[in-house]
Input
Amino acid sequence: MNANTLSEITNLWNKVLSECENKIDDQRIFDAFFKDTYIHSIDGKSMIISCNSSLTTTILHDKYKDIITSIVDELTGTNFEVNFVTESELKDTSKKLVIDDKPKFFTNCFVSPNYTFDNFVVGPSNKEASQASLIVASTPGKLYNPLFIYSQSGLGKTHLLNAIANYVKETNPTMKVLYCSSQTFFEEYMNLIKDRHTNDDLKDYIKQFDFLLIDDIQFFQNKKSTEEFFFSIFEFLKANNKQIVLTSDRSPIELKELDPRLQTRFTSGLPISILKPTTEMCKEILMKKIEGSGLSLSIFDDEVLDLLSSKFKNSIRDLEGALNRLLFYANMNHLDHINLDTAIAALQSLIDVGDSKNKVSEQRILNIVADYYNLSVGQITGKIKTGQIVNARHIAIYLLRTMLDVSLKHIGELFSNRDHTTIMHSVSKVEGMLKDDNQARIAISELKKRISA
Ligand code: ADP
Ligand code: MG
Output
């Protein structure tokens, strides 16, 4: 069948619709999304279907395109490329339509399904960044625009960007998310220039997204034409309440080589930094990664987790690297349990072992004293001044000072930054107790035995 005249076209579409109505179980879906559509034009093998809203174009395109195309092809005996466009887009003739089925740009950009909010450990160093990310993912374009996350490398920026994309995909699948690195953005733009194409296609392509997530924006510095191009897209998206999230290895103010207009835009949104994690966070992340990879925590001695989390706080990427190396080492040596000696042997090139032995012993003394007095390490090193805690604190300080080669200053730092005279006072206090307090003498000798065991 040929569809040439207006009445033939109308006739064809009516037949397509009635076939669709038969095939779609839910009449409400048909009424809401199919009923008011019509063929706007046929050009060669391309058929443009006019829809009354962008939601309809999205639904028809994402969910029903295959059914519709097969019905059209069956009725016409031709392989049509069916595209859905809103009436308002069709009216705006000055605008080039983006009707290509497959994205022509950013074909190498993929969101990693492994980076989610669920497996992102939140602590004091990243709480703001993670909360703000969740807010923009659930209420895009409203509050913080752009959200600008910055930190040193390895602290979770890329993880959060992917988490936003995954969250939107799951909770709001009709929203379109473009996630890419600034290098990819730059390359896409340069390819256009190289081929002497107009950049309108790329601009139109990007403008259809509800989220633009660009990683490592610092690479835009000193790339004048890319910055210029990005600026115009930025202004458009922001004016249309589309959400922009950017990451960088430094704050907007420190992006000194960036176009000053961009710099002010970035500052005016919400710049948030991620700081280095605490040891506790590192330990939690480590445990999550271990469990996430299907291993049991029970194959690790707790001291091993403490060693890793205290040694690799500067970068979670390094922390993961150390864990991987440790697992590799254990595997090569057919070990099914990992103790401190194994960890030190596996990681000796990554860490200063002498220092780590000391660190671990410090931790060991604190753990054993805490255990002995039924307290937490935090209580012992903290500021509370009740009798039992103060007593345990004096003893822990005394043991650290006498069993290890560490300075008063360093011990002070371990104990909530007390100054060295306070530490000295604890040591002499325990020396006094050893002379005339039998119970204290017994306790200390028992503790020493446990620590050296
Ligand atoms: P950045 O982009 O800041 O350099 P990434 O997001 O690539 O850092 O993080 C490096 C690695 O550390 C990733 O594997 C990521 O999953 C992990 N990571 C970082 N922060 C966290 C966190 N808070 N919880 C869990 N994993 C984290
Ligand atoms: Mg990154």
